[in-house]
Amino acid sequence: MKSRFQQQMIRLTGTPTEYRYLLAVSGGADSMVMADLFVESGYHFAIAHCNFHLRGEDSDRDMRFVQQWSEKQNVVCFVKEFDTLAETEASGESVEMTARRLRYQWFEEVGKDYDYVVTAHQADDQAETMFLNLTRGTGLKGLTGITEKSDKLLRPLLSFTADEIRQYAKDQNIEYVIDVTNADEQIRRNKIRHTVIPALESMNPQLVPTMCHTSRILQQQYGIYQDAVKKFMDECTTRKGDTLHIRRAFLDNHPYKETLLFEILKTYHFTEAAVQCILKAEQPGRMFYAPQYVLLVDREEYLVYPIEKPEEVEIVCHDLDELRQFFDVERLVIDGTSSFPKDRDTLVVAPSKLQFPITLRHWKEGDFFYPFGAAGRKKLSDFFTDQKFNRREKDEVILFCIHNHIAWVIGYRSDERFKLIPTDIEFYTISIKDLSFFHLQKS
Question: Shortest CA distance to 36 belongs to which of 62, 78, 9, 2?
Fold first, then answer.
């Protein structure tokens, strides 16, 4: 394994002994084997360890283990401790995504003095990632999996399976810690690792190497795809100042116009649902929003430019397709088994009362509504006071308005005037999907 590893390093870097490496080491089998291989190969490296404080004493145990190993090997060890749960609550991301973001942000910061940052991802991680992306829903990019080299990031163990790594650890008497949460199949990656992959290996015992081979093929194909997309973008887009101009004529007759427009707009964080609505929009003047950008439908072009004053953002939805950019919308029939959502993130309204256009906007002084379950009219400012909102919470409130009447203070309270009545036989449920662009701070 040592010889194969060194060959990998030569292939990835050319002359590995000339560089300085920062190794991401958790204390588990993969990263400790990687660290041992760097020691045995005589490469110059330091250790970086993240303590996310997600597993109580086990997190601190892992940190001490890595520190002690580094001290024994006379290797510099950088340690960073995170309040991951607080970060998760603040960001709205999953714990997994928050930890990943924090980890790579810190690696970028502490790795500035090193030529490469090295992680211990291996072949089984590659297969798991490809299946995980597939279950989440992905395009070609997600199916390419993990790359061996990206800028300063190296993953020299990607060609080694978990079994090979653990056998090497056993043969070389390499100590490591065990993360007991890796057995928890409530975590999707673990479910794939312990249930899905073993089931598929009964059909193909070489499943993991096969998936790694597939990943390499898809990465090359994705490179060809990206070259073709760039050529198309060079032909159909121009930039003037901070505005991107997209010529509609280049898209209208293209058989893959939806994919191509999404590739152009994804860097501006427009969703696939938004792209579908944009392509259906024929009338000039229609506007579509991403977190920090707006797209204007012009006669011959789409114009994409930054949102300069987020407090003035006002979105008008002319039909259900446009509404579905931002909400999950479902139409249901009322019968004896009907149950009505009671969570604050869902509006229940009869089809007869869901009339377009619907406007989404921030609140302003003088706004009022009729809170569901309360008697009479109330100013929004008084409603905020009752709810003990701070300034930031008030600034982030979004209103769902039907013909200029507030039907829903989104995420808080619907309006009495739009509730279901006994003669209603159907209803819509409208649940929040993506309103991220509204959550920019108001000036």
Answer: 2
What is the architecture, at CATH level 2, of domain 2-221? 3-Layer(aba) Sandwich (3.40)
- Predicted pLDDT of residue 89: 83
**Predicted pLDDT of residue 443:** 35
Q: How far apart are CA 56 and CA 347, in angstroms?
A: 40
Would you state the torsion angle of the CA atoms of residues 270, 275, 277, 279, taken in this order, to the nearest 10 degrees?
Answer: 140
Tell me the C-alpha to C-alpha distance, in Å, between residue 71 and each of 61, 107, 357. Answer: 15, 20, 66
**Assign residue 316 a region: left if phi > 0, alpha if psi is -120 to 50, beta otherwise?**
beta
Q: Are 431 and 328 in contact (CB under 8 A)?
A: yes
pLDDT per position as a tens digit, 296-347:
898 899 999 988 654 556 889 999 999 998 899 999 888 766 667 777 889 9
Determine the pLDDT at residue 336: 65
- 146 DSSP assignment: -
Share above pLDDT 90 across residues of the chain, in percent, rounded to a whole number = 66
pLDDT given for residue 338 in this prediction: 62
105 is written with which tokens? Answer: 């942000």
Helix axes 29-41, 2-13, angle to 10 degrees: 80
Is 47:111 a contact under the CB 8 Å cutoff?
Answer: no
Distance CA 268, CA 242 (A): 12
Fold of 241-308: 3.30.465
Per the CB < 8 A criterion, the answer to whether 400 and 410 are in contact is yes
Neighbouring-strand partners of residue 297 = 302
Angle at 42 between CA 36 and CA 46, to 5 degrees: 65
d(CA 80, CA 94): 20
Three-state DSSP class for residue 263:
helix
Q: Measure the CA–CA gap between 184 and 133, rounded to whole angstroms.
A: 19
Nearest partner of 270 among 297, 251, 289, judged by Cα:
289
Rounded Cα–Cα distance for residues 325 and 271 (Å): 8
SS3 57: helix
In whole angstroms, how far apart are CA 152 and each of 4, 22, 39, 352, 413?
21, 10, 20, 58, 49
What value does the mean pLDDT of the chain take? Answer: 90
DSSP for 147-193 reads -SEETTEE-TTTTS-HHHHHHHHHHTT------GGGG-TTSHHHHII
Q: Structural domain boundaries of the chain?
A: 2-221, 241-308, 316-439
Q: Which residue type occupies 60? A: D
